[in-house]
Design brief:
The protein is mostly helical. The chain has three domains: 175 residues, no CATH class; 102 residues; 93 residues, no CATH class. It is built from 22 helices and seven strands. The strands form three sheets. A three-stranded antiparallel β-sheet has the order 1-3-2. A two-stranded antiparallel ribbon has the order 4-5. Strands 6-7 form a two-stranded antiparallel sheet. The chain is rod-shaped. The termini are far apart. The relative contact order is 0.05.
């Protein structure tokens, strides 16, 4: 061979083996069994003879990469990995294969949802098929599903496994293995070693800082071996004493100890948070604000905390407090009648974080809300005082107009008797004449302005008192026809069940 030919032979890479690992299977189509074909009667695979041979197929599916769960769903595990193999190990030991969800949760330490995910992945990969599907009927005990451990046809095609149907009348899934191609024997041997090993739950990894500190101390001390919780220092790999010699021991200088610069080789535990509570994350802040809103707002009582947390997520993520939310609700205005509290809150909180985007704006809204609260409180106090002054005695005013006239006449007679009679003295007569004199235009305008102001505020006491005491004609001359008619209409409607008015 010439030098040029030899150099060319060196540069050309050697061909890869045809089948050297499970990852080399790339010519087969993807593995996926739809839900309609996950029963034994509709399966295209064959029943595994025992759990050992079935675990070989499980490890082949895990290493081939032909089955990818996320191609067929948007949730759940992303790949057929060690956790799915752990679940398959538990199923391989059952005969018949009738696992309950609670049993697998107890054996694997996974959650119920995770167990359901991995069982679904084994069915979609063609490794399990329903013999009997479990039932969950209300009022009755749940029945576990019974599975058949299956070997998918892609496994036989990849390894060159030949099968034969010994009984022509039997179903196709009962076919048995009759041989294997020479190219697939090496891969079958590797899968046999994997099936013999048991996949265990991975241990939690140590922090990188602790690993680095342990490696550093190991390099300084030589070989470190843990025996019954103690450390034996054997630099030369000889000796059995657990106490190091005096010449091998080094201590930091006293100056560093006195100044506190020397650090202990034992990593210190992080100090606990103030108050013994962890700092809330985004979801925690949403739920905290939702609980406070339900407690503070009457029209949110009885609402679901998760629903309110979802509705108020934008303001919670912006760092709003319940007081700031109440200030914003005051600016938007609250409804008197609420049919669905969560829906009303969603409407009122729309674009709140963009309008009040600074703490100063939110503080101004809080001050305005507090001012309105104080004004409403003072108004209620004044109303209570006015009502107490108006109805201070135990006597209630009659509702009949005839009784009103009789009571007014009786009271006038009592006042006349108390004053010694209306015509006892000329001064009294002059005084009564002065009282009966017609008011001037200016006085009439002022009286009508005051009466109209009370009418606009919802009070008709001034006009109705004149009607009852002086009569409708005199009240009409004094306050005008429109005001008297409106006041009498409101007064008559206040006694009807079809009309309700007043202040809240």
């Amino acid at each position: 061979m010439s030098v040029v030919a030899a150099s060319a032979a060196v540069m050309v890479p050697a061909p890869r083996p045809a089948v050297d690992d499970a990852d080399a299977v790339v010519v087969l189509p993807g593995l996926f069994v739809p839900e309609a074909s996950q029963r034994l009667s509709a399966s295209s695979g064959r029943i595994a003879g025992e759990g050992y041979s079935w675990m070989q197929a499980v490890h082949w599916v895990a290493g081939s990469g032909l089955y990818r769960p996320r191609r067929h769903r948007s949730h759940g595990p992303r790949s057929f990995g060690p956790t799915t193999v752990r679940v398959a190990q538990e199923l391989a030991q059952l005969f018949p294969c009738r696992p309950g969800i609670a049993y697998l949760v107890r054996r694997t330490g996974l959650s119920e949802r995770s167990v359901e995910y991995h069982l679904g992945m084994l069915r979609e990969a063609g490794l399990l098929a329903y013999i009997v599907k479990g039932t969950r009927i209300r009022g009755e005990s749940a029945q576990a599903s019974e599975f058949a451990r299956m070997i998918p046809p892609e496994f036989d095609a990849a390894l060159g496994i030949r099968t034969v149907q010994r009984d022509e009348a039997a179903p196709a899934y009962t076919r048995a293995v009759s041989g294997i191609a020479e190219a697939g024997r090496e891969l079958m041997a590797k899968l046999a070693k994997k099936a013999a090993r048991k996949v265990r739950k991975p241990r939690p990894k140590k922090p990188a800082k602790a690993r680095a500190g342990g490696a550093r101390r190991g390099a300084e001390q030589g070989s470190v071996t843990a025996v019954s919780g103690e450390v034996r220092c054997t630099p030369m790999q000889v000796g059995t004493s657990s106490v190091a010699g005096a010449g091998d021991t080094s201590f930091p200088p006293e100056s560093k100890l006195a100044s506190g610069e020397a650090t202990s080789p034992t990593p210190k535990k992080p100090k606990a948070k103030a108050g013994g509570r962890r700092k809330l994350n985004t979801v925690g802040r949403r739920f905290q604000l939702a609980r406070e809103l339900i407690r503070e707002l009457d029209w949110l009582r009885g609402c679901s905390v998760p629903r309110i947390a979802w509705v108020a997520r934008t303001v919670a993520d912006a760092g709003w407090t319940v007081t700031e939310v109440k200030g914003w609700l005051h600016l938007r205005g609250e409804a008197g009648r609420v049919r669905r509290g969560s829906g009303l809150l969603a409407v009122l909180l729309a674009d709140a974080e963009t309008v009040l985007d600074t703490p100063a704006k939110r503080a101004a809204a809080i001050e305005q809300w507090r001012g309105a609260q104080e004004a409403a409180r003072r108004h209620r106090i004044q109303q209570v005082r006015d009502r107490a002054e108006r109805f201070e005695g135990d006597w209630d005013a009659p509702t009949s107009r005839a009784v009103h006239r009789e009571v007014d006449a009786a009271l006038a007679q009592v006042r006349d008797v108390a004053n010694g009679g209306r015509h006892q003295a000329p001064d009294d007569t002059a005084h009564d004449q002065a009282l009966g004199a017609e008011p001037s235009e200016q006085e009439l305008a002022e009286l009508r302005a005051v009466a109209w102001g009370q009418y606009m505020a919802g009070q008709t006491d001034l006009v109705m008192t004149a009607v009852h005491a002086m009569g409708p004609d005199a009240a009409t001359r004094l306050y005008g026809t429109d005001l008297v008619q409106h006041a009498r209409r409101i007064a008559s409607g206040s006694h009807s069940s079809w009309m309700t008015y007043g202040h809240r």
